[in-house]
Design a protein that fits this description.
Largest sheet: none
CATH topology: MetI-like fold
Strand content: under 5%
Structural class: mainly alpha
CATH architecture: Orthogonal Bundle
Order of helices and strands: HHHHHHHHHHHHHH
Radius of gyration: 25 Å
CATH class: Mainly Alpha
Number of strands: 0
Number of domains: 1
Length: 301
């Protein structure tokens, strides 16, 4: 008869780490998992102000794509792409300038942060005043230098309002991107720059052949994170335009809010929220896959 190997008894202390994680797990289930499950359930109903709720299957999803929702998706990706591209480009330029050995650069670095530090609502309200055609600074300056002959309401026209929300989002998000890239640049060994300088390499060559390749993981990471934040941004557009004029700035998150909260069509709003979760989940999967790949290559430690 084969001898059985007795397993060591589990000590009470072995459960202690799990007990410490239990409050965080319960909190996550209550404030994250349960709302997601409930939103998914509501997306298959006609939930509204009516206390009677009926199961409607995929009607909400079918109706959603019949009501120009694909245009909202395309507008969301356009808004996100423009904003993220500008933030990445301006962030790189700002990081290069802040990384230069100039007097007072510590003070300059501090002065870069206010757009990101101040409350978002305050900054957006200030931009709303500047966009005003009657007393706004931008319209007034454009008239003084002769670009326009009369007051121009930036938020009253579709294309102007769309670009205005992009500019405001870039103004708010660029400081964080700049500081992130600056930290990545400061991790590059100065020996590489000194060797290239000794060989007669120009500044642009050193940036293109040394700086940019070495901070590429940081650029990729910030691009994906900024895309997720921008895609899910609500405050900027809602404070400036509330999705107008004529839905010119209505993104997926704005359309979801209007449907579920303003029109009290909770079922249709839940279906739109599920679509947002799917898109953001795709972004997150790409982000984690990229992090895993960079970690395996040794670019991230």
């Amino acid at each position: 008869m084969a001898a059985t190997i007795a397993r060591p008894a589990r000590k009470p202390t072995d459960w202690f780490p799990y007990l410490l994680l239990l409050p965080a797990l319960l909190t996550t289930l209550v404030i994250v998992a349960w709302p997601l499950v409930e939103t998914f359930r509501l997306s298959f109903t006609d939930a509204s102000m009516n206390p009677v709720t009926n199961y409607v299957g995929f009607d909400n999803y079918r109706t959603m794509f019949e009501r120009r929702f694909p245009d909202v998706i395309a507008r969301t990706f356009l808004w996100m792409s423009l904003s993220v591209a500008l933030k990445i480009v301006l962030g790189l330029i700002g990081a290069v300038l802040l990384n230069a050995a100039v007097p007072g650069r510590t003070l300059v670095r501090l002065l870069v942060m206010p757009p990101w530090i101040i409350p978002m609502a305050v900054g957006v309200f200030i931009w709303g005043w500047m966009y005003n055609g009657q007393f706004g600074m931008i319209s007034g300056m454009a008239q003084r230098i002769g670009l326009i002959s009369q007051p121009f309401e930036f938020l009253a026209y579709k294309q102007a309002a769309f670009l205005s929300t992009v500019v405001t989002d870039v103004w708010i998000g660029t400081p964080l991107v700049t500081v992130y890239f600056l930290a990545a640049m400061q991790s590059v060994s100065t020996d590489l720059y000194e060797a290239a300088w000794t060989d007669g390499a120009s500044r642009f060559y050193r940036f293109r052949r040394i700086t940019l390749p070495l901070i590429a993981p940081a650029v990729a990471t910030m691009s994906l994170l900024s895309a997720i934040w921008t895609f899910n941004s609500f405050d900027i557009i809602w404070i400036l335009t509330e999705g107008g004029p004529r839905s010119a700035t209505t993104t997926m998150i704005i359309d979801t809010y209007k449907t579920a909260i303003s029109r009290f069509r909770y079922g249709e709003g839940a279906a739109r929220a599920v679509m947002i979760v799917l898109f953001l989940s795709a972004f997150s999967l790409v982000y984690f896959a990229m992090i895993r790949k960079l970690s395996s290559r040794g670019d991230i430690r």
